[in-house]
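call fold(seq) -> tokens
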Amino acid sequence: MKLKILPNHEGVRLDRYLADQRPDLSRSRIQKLIAEGAVCVNGKTPRASYRVVAGDSVAIEVPPPIESAIDPEDIPLDIFFEDDHLLVLDKPAGVIVHPAGGVTSGTLVNALLSHCTHLSGINGVLRPGIVHRLDKDTSGLMVVAKSDEGHRGLAAQLAARTMARHYLALIWGGFEADEGRVEAPVGRHPKNRKQMAVSPNGRFAATRWRVRARRDFLSLLSLALETGRTHQIRVHLAHLNRPVFGDPLYGGREERLNGIAPLFRQRATRLLAQTNRQMLHATQLRFVHPVKKKEMAFEAPPPEDMQSVLDML
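ret:
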């Protein structure tokens, strides 16, 4: 694939430019391709950090997928829909989506390789079929690509922001307004590499929220992603000083207890004691089938641990 840099793209990092032009490839996948010499700019192999210049000629060659070294594992999947091109499932909390950081078993990909005879190879050997992700301790709906045609179509909808992804979140405190929108760039935390943060050097990110219920020291929100940055909802809510209940990474646990009325502190302590993750669930997913061009819509109720907290409220 050959591309010519237009004036409106001048100054953009090469890996970011290619991620926008090839929504079927993750940015980390593009960075790996650049490191392997599969990307050339004006006939030379650049760094991922190279800032493109108007008139540059960029060529990217994606090698054919190689056989995965990941072992299939017979892990149950809660599948809502499946055909030759994709499947929609409800991921439980505690499951990592794909192998990373030395974790090679017990992931969603291990389960998918056992269930499916074929997955899209577009996103690389470690992430076959993975179009988008959920954090390990976030539960809910995901769509997985089985064919490359399906993967390209789903990735294009993500890039065009036409795939609707809605979440439920239980948060500390609440809002006076019934609905709102937060627009704040999200990037890697400058000191803690495991965290993301609102940063002027981050990527554009926007989240819409609506209050579903208010209960003493907590509120239930429905949220819609306009973009899909890593930890976006958790970072945006923490930025608003309304972290997700139970979130250990973004200030959603015991550090919040002193900020609530003494009348509710004992109750909040009991709820936290039975909560071992952030109370965030991907509850609705809507998109157009990338091959059959049929609108698809799915809804998954909160899992047992989250519903238990809601019932106690």
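Helices lie at 14-21, 27-35, 108-115, 148-160, 232-239, 262-273, 304-312.
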